[in-house]
# Entry
Amino acid sequence: MPVTYDLEGQKRVYATWAKFYDRIYVRLLARAQREAVAAACACGPDILEIGVGTGLTLPYFTPGSRVLGADLSLDMLKVASRKVAAQKLGHVRGLMVMDACRLGFADERFDAVTAQFVITLVPDPEQALAEMDRVLKPGGEIIISSRLVDDDAITAPLWAMLAPLAKAVGWSTDFKVRRLTDWAASTNRYDTVHVGKGYFKVVRLRKRPDAA
Ligand SMILES: C[S@@+](CC[C@H](N)C(=O)[O-])C[C@H]1O[C@@H](n2cnc3c(N)ncnc32)[C@H](O)[C@@H]1O
# Structure
């Protein structure tokens, strides 16, 4: 069955969210965002942040990094751009409108690719992962943080209470970790090196140094 891309709908949703996203999510997402950023910085300086949004993650990168941020929503990027200027985040080398499934970068351009709280919004996550793979250097990592469900999950009451907040921002409540680790295994070129615990998880997929 063909995947339907409602990219315009997604942009409309985030045009509204751009105005108050930070106030709601800055603390809620910080732990996973910091963990993902630290893992990315450990891979090397050239980092692509897909679905960078309002740039909540951008202050967490080390000054020596060179970060490019891509997002579907110009409205979210405008907030990120103001943040970069106000906080003088010189390691942020560019912010651009781009679909995760069609990245406008050369092959093997980045040491790490992060996608934080976005993979569950993309209609074709495997296509987005394939694009991340294309632009990632061998030895680098794809680092995903998101609301990810344990493969053997039974929904705990606390998580059920948080579900409306997750749904409001468009997160899936049934995206399993396995969808990422299965993709990694299917490539024969990636190893799953970390699967975090808790409601918001960080998953790290490392591209083998000898990957063709
Ligand atoms: C929940 S926000 C996360 C923002 C940021 N990564 C964070 O951690 O705060 C999701 C972001 O993904 C973007 N997005 C949704 N679909 C996308 C796609 N197909 N390609 C690129 N960005 C996308 C939205 O515009 C929005 O800015």
Summary: The first strand starts at residue 46 and ends at 50.
